[in-house]
Amino acid sequence: MIRDIVLFKPRSDNSMLTSPIDEKDYSDKEVREKLHETLEENRIHHKGLGIAANQLGLPDRAFNIEGKTYFNPKVIGRAEDSYEPFSEGCLSFLSVRATIRRANQIQVSYMDIDGNVIEEELDGIDAIAFQHELDHLEGITMVDNIDSNIQKKKFMEKYKKALKKHK
Fold first, then answer.
1. Is beta strand 83-88 parallel, antiparallel or unpaired with respect to 68-78?
2. What is the dihedral of CA 39, 141, 91, 61, to 10 degrees?
3. 164 CB-contact burial (10 Å; exposed 0-12 / middle 13-18 / buried 19+)
4. Domain segments of the chain as ranges
5. pTM (2 decimals)?
6. How far is it, in rounded angstroms, from Cα 108 to Cα 132?
7. In angstroms, rounded to a whole number, what is the distance separating the alpha carbons of residues 65 and 31?
C-alpha cells in the first residue's frame, strides 16, 4: 500500500520525524516480510535511495535501502578518519539537498529479512545511506546534521520554497 511521506513542517509537531523509535521484536517472519514489502514498494514509488518506516508514519525501527530492509539497525563503529562531506537529499524534505559530514566507513548490526542478526562493514554510499536512514529512526532530521547555522538557514529557506510549491 502506497503511503504519503511524512514531511517536515516548520513550527509544527514533527514528532513522527523527531522522536526516536524503540527497538521492536521482529522475530515473526510475516511481520518482517510485510514491513519489507511496504518499505520497498514506497521507496520505489517515491523514488528514494532509502526510506525509513517513520517517514511513512509507521512506528517501526526499520528502513529499506535499494531493496534491502534493515530491522533494529545500529552503527557499532565508525572509522574516525573517514568523515567526508556528502550532498544528501531527503524525501521528508522534498529532496532539497544539503552537505552533511558523515563517516565513510562504518560497522553496523541489524536483523535481515530472514531473521539473522548481521554484523558487517559498509563504506561509500552504502555507509552514507545507512547513517542517513538510521538518523530518521533516532529522531534526527537532516537539518540537525548541517554544520553551520548559516547553512541551516539557507537550507530551510530553500525547503520552505519547495514546500510552498508542493502544496
1. unpaired
2. 0
3. exposed
4. 15-166
5. 0.96
6. 13
7. 18
Question: Domain 15-166 classified CATH 3.90.950.10?
Answer: no
Neighbours of 109 (CB within 10 A): 15
Whether residue 59 contacts residue 53, with contact meaning beta carbons closer than 8 Å, is answered with: yes
Residue 88, CA distances (Å) to 6, 11, 28, 35, 93 in order: 18, 23, 34, 25, 11
Strand-strand pairing, 105-111 and 68-78:
antiparallel
Tell me the residue type at 136.
H
* pLDDT tens per residue across span 102-158: 999 999 999 999 999 999 999 999 999 999 999 999 999 999 999 999 999 999 999
Of 37, 119, 133, 138, which residue is the catalytic one? 133
Q: Identify whether 37 is a catalytic site residue.
A: no
